[in-house]
Amino acid sequence: MTEALGAVHFKQALPAVLELAPGAAHRSRLSAVETVRARIILAIEHGLLQPGNKLPALEEIAQGLEVSIITARRGLESLVTDGYLLRKRGRGGGTFVADPPPSAKDTAVAAFRADNAAINSLIDQRSLMESAIVHAAALNATPADCELLEKFIADSAAAPGWIEHAKPDMAFHRHIAKISGLPETDTYLAVYTALHNYFVPYPQEQLEHGRDEHRQIVAALKKHDPVAAVAVARKHIDALRHEMFIAL
Fold first, then answer.
1. Residue ranges per domain, the chain?
2. Cα 59 vs. chain centroid, distance in angstroms?
3. Confidence class of residue 207 from pLDDT cuts 50, 70 and 90?
4. pLDDT at residue 171 in the model
5. Closest by alpha carbon to 179, among 133, 215, 231, 216?
């Protein structure tokens, strides 16, 4: 009886565990608008978004950052007000990175930087979970599954930038989780999403190496080779330690 009650208590506490155990102590205190600000400012500060670069359409920004259109709009408007972005009207108009952007300190950016340990913890968790996910997926994948995964890779490659690339990239990982059939996939996806919320926009040319690794994973799935699939997945995730803003 005590054991059963303990299991029920754990399930009830799971959302809190997912929020607190990985870290996210600082970012979790930010509003959705502040997280939009931080991710775009970090991309500007690290030269991933250059002065004069045009941002994608509002709807695409919302999809890529996994926020509502209203939240994305408010985040961009605040960045325009603070001088990080500027709006141009008429033909060729849109939202652009200011030239030069300001160097003012932003509390939302400081919160992201303070979560360095949390980010590395999330990478560890994702690596362990995704190893199990791709191992099972390699045993279960059908030709139709592999064809769909290749479509997601092609959609990512055809995207004009990181924002548009993010949706098919996330779909790739979520479908592999689905293929695995493992009952823990919801927990894996929660960790995956928590880590994704720290990503900042990257130039499209810097994403091709990751797509090559996705292609290698699909090749391993086609051969039903779980050992090869896990090796590529671990390499793919470990690269985040050198590519995310914490390492730039």
1. 30-108, 110-247
2. 17
3. confident
4. 95
5. 133
Q: What CATH topology corresponds to 110-247?
A: Four Helix Bundle (Hemerythrin (Met), subunit A) (1.20.120)
State the chain's maximal CA–CA distance in angstroms.
70
Span 30-108: which CATH code?
1.10.10.10
Q: What is the mean pLDDT of residues 3-18?
A: 42
Instruction: Return the percentage of the chain with pLDDT > 70, whole number.
Output: 88
Q: Per the structure block, which two tokens stand in for 17?
A: 């565990």
pTM across the whole model:
0.79
Identify whether the C-beta of residue 98 lies closer than 8 Å to the C-beta of residue 55: no
Helices assigned H by DSSP within 49-197: 58-64, 69-81, 107-114, 116-140, 143-158, 162-180, 185-196
The three-point CA angle 193-198-199 to 5° equals: 95
**Whole-angstrom Cα distance, residue 18 to residue 191?**
7
Q: Is 210:162 a contact under the CB 8 Å cutoff?
A: no
With contact defined as beta carbons under 8 Å apart, do 17 and 9 qualify?
no
